[in-house]
Amino acid sequence: MSVSYDHIACFIDDSDAASRALGHATALRDAAGGGLSVVHVLAPPAFLVSLAAGLGGAPVHDTEVEREAAEMWLAEEARSAGAEAVLLDGHPASVACDWARDAGVDVMVAATHRGLVERTLVGSFASYLTHHAPCAVLLVPPEQGAS
After folding, report:
1. Nearest Cα to 73, choosing from 139, 140, 19?
2. pLDDT digits (tens, 9 = 90+) for 57-72
3. What's the structural domain count of the chain?
4. Is 18 exposed, middle or buried (0-12, 13-18, 19+ CB in 10 A)?
5. Residue 126 domain-assigned?
6. Entry pTM
7. Is residue 114 part of a domain?
């Protein structure tokens, strides 16, 4: 049985786990011969502010500066992988699934790396993908011994 992946999307943040997922996505792209999109989703500021308020404070938040920094970082990550950069806005997991559906993605690649507290506060991106993705999902676990 042969599976074809014409469009692979790797969803990243600035973690080591996401770098590992990008390595897997790049290898999959190289083996399958399709295209690769490196995707990052900027969570809406209201979400970040309410999360910070719940933790006892509120961050100073400049969305324009944040977007410019994210665009530069993502462009470099995508360039290094020989891929297209895609920057999205919104609730990360649902926006990722909607974009993947609209973009005709064949497989979504993401890391599984959030701890219990972070999953409780902001949810699990990986778990959401397993239940709502419009295509196959490849979840890359943390390296053994990584915390």
Report:
1. 19
2. 555 556 788 889 999 9
3. 1
4. buried
5. yes
6. 0.81
7. yes
